[in-house]
Amino acid sequence: MTAAVAIQVAKKKLAKPPLDLHYLGDRVLRQPAKRISRIDDELRQTIRQMLQTMYSADGIGLAAPQVGIHKQLIVIDLEPEDEQAPPLVLINPKIERTSGDLEQCQEGCLSIPGVYLDVERPEIVEVSYKDENGRPQRLVADGLLARCIQHEMDHLNGVLFVDRVENRLELNEALDKKGFAVQAVRPVAQVH
């Protein structure tokens, strides 16, 4: 058996990314993602395409539903300028634990370009998942990585960060300014 290599693609903008992003208001973003039963070369090709699409949009995280794929699959790269830093691939991620400490921080989303608003989330998250080679993994994350994992995992459940924004006035103004329908927001009860 050969040692598994992390999936890597050139971290550059492509004139025509392989996948199309979906935007707030598109029903595809509200459908829950399905668990992945087979991790194979076809899935790894999808992962490569998701990474290329994410880098092309200057993102640091992308969930499969954002590109119209209803699978529990997330790619994250907090160091898009560092060619040597491998991206993080989470297949069928599950949050095992979160910290009691909450942190308010600004978030944005490739599916809602130009909108940045404060969202409160747990500061630390422990997540279990499978990597691109099908091996079970566990990760305790804090800071930006914890926030990014929670943000992308919300997408797998049809939830967008704007659904968690508590300042409705600020939310309505930001969406209106960028031409997004306020009616597309589905507020979720904050669970602490």
What does this entry look like structurally?
With 192 residues, the chain is an alpha+beta fold. It contains 3 helices and 7 strands, in the order αβββββββαα. The protein has helices at residues 41-56, 143-156, 168-177; strands at residues 61-63, 73-76, 88-98, 102-107, 117-122, 124-130, 136-142. The strands form 2 sheets. The chain has a 5-stranded antiparallel β-sheet with strand order 1-2-3-6-7. β6 (124-130) and β7 form a beta hairpin. The longest helix is centred in the N-terminal third of the chain and has 16 residues, at 41-56. The model has no long low-confidence stretch (mean pLDDT 94).
Task: Based on the model shown, name its key terms.
single chain, 192 residues, alpha+beta, 5-stranded antiparallel sheet, two-stranded antiparallel sheet, 3 helices, 7 strands, 23% strand
